[in-house]
Amino acid sequence: MTLFATLLAFTLMAQNWAFDLGQSTRCIPIPHQLSVCHDVGYSEMRLPNLLGDSSLESEVVPRSGDWRSLLQTGCHPQAQTFICSLIAPVCLDTFIQPCRSLCLAVRDSCAPVFTCHGHSWPEELDCDRFPAQDDMCLTPLPKHISRFSKDLPQPACQTCPPVDELPSLKTVMDALCLTDFAVKAKLFRRRVASKEPELEVEGKVEFIQRGPLLPYDTANLLQQWLLLNLRCAHALVKPGRAQLYLITGTMRSDGTVELTHLFPWLKKDLHIAAATRKWKHHKC
């Protein structure tokens, strides 16, 4: 599956942003199938929506899965608010659009996800097309509210790190010496699409070398790395399976986390377990 492929196809084929905000619309309940917008604070939406979609069955619902893929990366705390204001606008006397400032905030955080998958920010989400007046549209959160999430280490978009099966003891020790952190984590991949992310970290993350990682955020950080670097992630775990790994990585100068080696932690492989024991007293 190519992330956002369907989404990008429909935005490129869509009509120009010529949606008439004064045209006749109808209010309908947000359907169960549109789960991506279930917890946005309202239960009814307008159709046609702000992307010009008029059919739930053939347009809005089928395309929502692609938006879900973007939102699951956690690229911005208000990405859901922004997307749902377009695909399932709240049913009031008039359309409430996202402000240009909200679009810019979401774009600056989420465009790198598109870039990592070889695409650009969709033209239909061009921020210049949204109103600049903050009192007539949806505004971004104050900086003091959203600042904390931005201070957390973020995953890097990168080339796929090497995966070494049955490595020698020296290979593992060298990898530990050349990196900022090392963790033991089980990666899981769902067999079928659901509202939950396709890939996640199963269970607790065990630190071999904590380095710059935050204990309460490391599992989430690894999951976001998997969703961002989806092509690499698909090569790591088969659908419906879980795989235990020793994962090493470094912190880049821009504050993003890059994975440098992944070692499948197999029962028959004694070198990885030996290396993690020796590491406690090892001097590089």
TrEMBL record:
N-terminal signal peptide: 1-18
InterPro entries reported in the protein's UniProt record: Frizzled/SFRP, Frizzled_dom, Frizzled_dom_sf, Netrin_domain
Pfam families: Fz
FZ domain sequence ranges: 22-140
Domain NTR: 157-284
Keywords: Developmental protein, Differentiation, Disulfide bond, Secreted, Signal, Wnt signaling pathway
GO BP term, pick one: cell differentiation
GO cellular component: extracellular space
Gene3D superfamilies membership: Frizzled cysteine-rich domain
Intrachain S-S bonds: 103-127
Domain of life, source organism: Eukaryota
Molecular function terms from GO: Wnt-protein binding
Subcellular location: Secreted
Family annotation (PANTHER family): FRIZZLED (PTHR11309), SECRETED FRIZZLED-RELATED PROTEIN 2 (PTHR11309:SF11)
Similarity comment: family membership: Belongs to the secreted frizzled-related protein (sFRP) family.
Name of this protein: Secreted frizzled-related protein 2
Record organism: Ameiurus melas
